[in-house]
Amino acid sequence: MKKFLAALLISMLLSTGAQAGTVETSGRGSDQQSAIRAALRQAIEQEIGAVVDSQTRIKNHQLIEEEIRLKSAGFIEGYEIVSINQTGGIFEATVRTNVRSKELRAELMTLLEKKAIVETAMEDPRIKIIAVDERGIQLPDVEDEFMKALKNQGFSRMISDADDADYIARVLVSDKTISARLMGAASGEIICVETFEIQKRMFTDTRQWSINNAAQRLARAALNHAAQLEQHITVELETPSIDPTTFLNRLKAIEGVSGVFRRSLNEFDVNFDGAASSLAALLEREGFSIRELSATVIKI
Prior knowledge:
About 40% of the residues lie in helices and about 30% in strands.
């Protein structure tokens, strides 16, 4: 149901305008090839403008720009150079390009649908990635690979401070395996775990290939978690005047709550059919004041 709603949302945001066709664009660069590449990129930009409405593009600017940077060549069926001119050391190329608009539209639909699922279910959580080797030495290149994989699955908010994170992705790289797990920063709940054996491959950077595959597997598992209707939310009771046992009983009675585990006197882990903001709204309707709200924690 959640996937259907996300797809419906994105279909409303996508324009029903121009289909595949030949477009003529220009680009500038320090040499002929860079000018041609700029013109081809402009052709993709122009087609995206025909597929995605302006509001959606502004909201998802960073995500779409990354998609153009990584995959633009795959959306071009062919091109013809119309002209190349040089003025004062700057080249300007005009090209006539056949863009694969159908493939471009499908790719954007998939990307924005994933983003909608993440925003709807997990409220676009802040994620901190920590990757180290067996000696505890930080591995920035591994962190970058996991960041890229998570972004490709619709997770857009990667942060540098673990104290501000909703989720933490911990990655351990050894000589033989890559172990990765995504957990709730506040609750410590393990969302997903992936262990990938580093395999020897001919004609390929074995380590990089293994890191890339491990990152993609964790990112897909994270998206699968987001697509589930039931979410796990921590509720912390900070108001002394509220009796914890009474609060527990009222919490269990809220529609959509399928289970409550009492972690401590004033801390509860809740299984809820929806996002934390939806549970917070129901708690407010019950007369409780929300002091703090994040993607995984509600403080009362």
